[in-house]
């Protein structure tokens, strides 16, 4: 399975989409590169919520491996999302290119780091990693499979954690041109933290707020006016992320000036007056000659 990410993670194909090596290689050749930001924490949460579930092809008996490829430092908290995956028995390999932060790669990756962290100076050099990484991955799978066959248990990603671990009833209220208020009903079991992500639906950098699990409301401020926002609330526990809440709403437009009047006309001047717009600190006045034939 493969997902690309920038500010909004996108599943390219699930674990169960292809059944042969040639099909996977053809899909890679046809892949379109997704440019943008580097929200690695959001991407790892997407992998947990979307890509490692049974309906996406994850099998209970199969080892769970995530290979992260990144060329930059994350713009959100990647270590928290990575730790949740690792607590569930998912093994993470971190591969950095160019401007990747090696300290962050080591935070995200599973132990032992000498086998799970790789960093190269440019994309063509990734080919030098293929042989070693393949051998390491295959060996790790065999080792973990042998442990399972001798009686150790393999944790599965919950298919649906339900009301026990998931909040409900997201309410968005008190919407203004620059702010909105979020509230929700907590799950039966209190989470360790909430992760709230919000961003404009037509593109823009996601922003993230992490709250204590005892809090179930949040005031979002410094928003852009007259803009549709997507909002997600994820409950985070020590070993699992509950199902997230999602909502969408638009901020109000800024207050316009009203009652424009023209007075004191002369051959080369006129006076304009209007009722003030609430909150405005300046006005921009544009004036141009009317086209021929238009009313003055």
UniProtKB/TrEMBL annotation:
Gene3D superfamilies the UniProt entry points to: Immunoglobulins (2.60.40.10), von Willebrand factor, type A domain (3.40.50.410)
Database matches in PROSITE patterns: FN3, VWFA
Q: What's the superkingdom here?
A: Eukaryota
Localization: Secreted, Extracellular space, Extracellular matrix
Task: Please classify the protein's predominant subcellular localization into one broad category.
Answer: secreted
Transmembrane feature ranges: none
Entry protein name: COKA1 protein
Per the UniProt entry, what species is this protein from, by scientific name? Upupa epops (Eurasian hoopoe)
């Amino acid at each position: 399975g493969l997902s690309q990410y920038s500010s909004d993670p996108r599943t390219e194909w699930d674990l169960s989409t292809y059944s042969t090596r040639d099909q996977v290689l053809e899909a890679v050749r046809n892949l379109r590169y997704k440019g943008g930001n580097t929200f690695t924490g959001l991407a790892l949460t997407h992998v947990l919520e979307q890509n490692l579930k049974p309906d996406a092809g994850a099998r209970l008996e199969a080892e769970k491996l995530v290979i992260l490829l990144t060329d930059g430092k994350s713009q959100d908290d990647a270590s928290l999302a990575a730790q949740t995956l690792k607590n569930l028995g998912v093994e993470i390999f971190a591969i950095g290119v160019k401007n990747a932060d090696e300290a962050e790669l080591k935070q995200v990756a599973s132990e032992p780091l000498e086998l799970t962290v790789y960093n190269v100076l440019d994309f063509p050099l990734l080919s030098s990693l293929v042989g070693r990484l393949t051998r390491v991955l295959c060996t790790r799978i065999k080792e973990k499979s042998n442990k399972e066959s001798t009686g150790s248990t393999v944790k599965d990603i919950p298919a649906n954690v339900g009301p026990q671990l998931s909040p409900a009833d997201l309410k968005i209220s008190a919407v203004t041109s620059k702010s909105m208020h979020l509230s929700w009903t907590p799950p039966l079991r209190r989470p360790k933290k909430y992760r709230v992500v919000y961003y404009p639906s037509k593109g823009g950098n996601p922003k993230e707020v992490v709250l204590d699990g005892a809090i179930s409301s949040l005031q979002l401020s410094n928003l852009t006016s007259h803009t549709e926002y997507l909002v997600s609330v994820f409950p985070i526990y020590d070993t699992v992320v509950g199902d997230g809440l999602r909502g969408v709403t638009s901020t109000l437009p800024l207050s316009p000036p009203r009652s424009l009047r023209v007075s004191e006309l002369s051959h080369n001047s006129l006076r304009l007056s209007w009722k003030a717009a609430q909150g405005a600190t300046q006005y921009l006045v544009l004036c141009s000659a009317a086209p021929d034939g238009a009313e003055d």
